[in-house]
Amino acid sequence: MNLTFRKATKEDVFLIVQMLADDDLGKSRENFQDPLPEVYYQAFASIDQDSNQELIIVENENVEIIGTLQLTSIPYLTYQGGIRAQIEAVRIRRDYRGQGIGHLFFEWAIERSKERGAHLLQLTTDKKRPDAIRFYENLGFQATHEGMKIHFNQ
Question: What is the CATH number of domain 4-138?
Answer without folding.
Answer: 3.40.630.30
